[in-house]
Amino acid sequence: MFSRITGTGSYLPKKVLTNQDLERMVETSHDWIFSRTGISQRHIAADDESTSDLALHASRRAIEAAGIDPQQIDLIIVGTTTPDQVFPSTACLLQNKLGIRSGGPAFDIQAVCSGFVYALSTADQFIRSGQSKCALIVGAETMSRIVDWTDRNTCVLFGDGAGAVILQASETEGIISTHLHADGAYKDLLSVDGGGCGVKREGDPRVIMDGSGVFKFAVGVLDSIVEETLSANNMQKSDIDWLVPHQANIRIIQATAKKLGLPMERVVLTVERHGNTSAASIPLALDTAVREGKIKPGETLLMEGVGGGFTWGSALVRW
Ligand code: ACO
Fold this sequence. Notes:
Layout: E1 2-11, E2 15-18, H1 19-23, H2 30-37, E3 41-44, H3 51-66, E4 75-79, H4 90-97, E5 106-109, H5 115-128, E6 134-142, H6 152-155, E7 160-170, E8 175-182, E9 190-193, E10 206-209, H7 211-232, E11 242-245, H8 250-260, H9 271-274, H10 281-291, E12 300-307, E13 311-318
Parallel strand pairs: 4-5, 4-6, 11-12
Antiparallel strand pairs: 1-7, 2-3, 6-7, 8-13, 9-10, 12-13
Helix pairs in contact: 3-4, 7-8
This protein binds acetyl coenzyme *A.
Residues 28, 32-33, 36-37, 113, 152-153, 156-157, 190, 209, 211-212, 214-215, 218, 246, 248-249, 276, 306-307 line the site of acetyl coenzyme *A.
């Protein structure tokens, strides 16, 4: 038994925050941001929009694209580092908003920017083992709520959004393999100060980052996960048709494309318009490429992501 992606969907909040808008908020410039990150704008959730709302819009589009009834969904996994509440999970809130009653398991995965790849891999195991037949996997984030809007080192990087896929049991191969890793020794390179309940702290949670440390770490582990994924499947670089990377930074993406020998036309890029939407970035990029008609049946996609923890992972997918 294999699992196949049968529908994709995504959602971006209406409000757009451009680099020019940021010039009026912190000491920065469009040129600085764009030349170092490739980002020129990002979307920001409205005050009354929550992570589960963004997830709901993206999920409805994926459900429609797959042509299924929501009641068929027997597993929901949401990758998010910005859940609506400590509990219930965003996945349970989403299940309720979708009107699914007495359904299968619904839970969140916290792997920050690797959250979608972690969630996809977990759902793939559920389907391969016969425990689920039709899974909804979502990456959804409201990063704007944990960004320190006075810190130019971090506030220029992130955006809000959601992406979703329907993963169904199939006799033909879809997800070829997934590869996940973590190393908590690098926890201080990128973290959020507060926001959890296990430690007593004052003040609002805020993202803290060692930018150049993150950059070097990300390029190194993405390099090795490309090797690991190809060799696990006896594949060559030339077997990859599309790279669908986590959209953190154009320079990190270019380094991975170079490693694969892939021209940038074969890399799905949304970082310029979306910024870094953490767990939402890969499914947002995937849905954008699918709806633009770029990805054709039978093509091979490599998804990869790296995020706080540190966590990193890949998924090799036959479309
Ligand atoms: N505008 C203007 N100047 C800025 C800004 C800004 N928004 N942010 C930082 N600076 C300044 C710093 O204060 C520093 O000034 P100083 O030298 O006077 O101290 C200087 O710019 C640093 O400049 P560079 O060293 O040239 O910066 P660098 O080329 O390292 O780029 C960046 C910084 C973009 C953060 C880079 O390190 C990076 O992309 N890192 C990866 C970060 C990332 O992707 N994080 C996302 C989360 S992790 C993930 O998703 C993989």
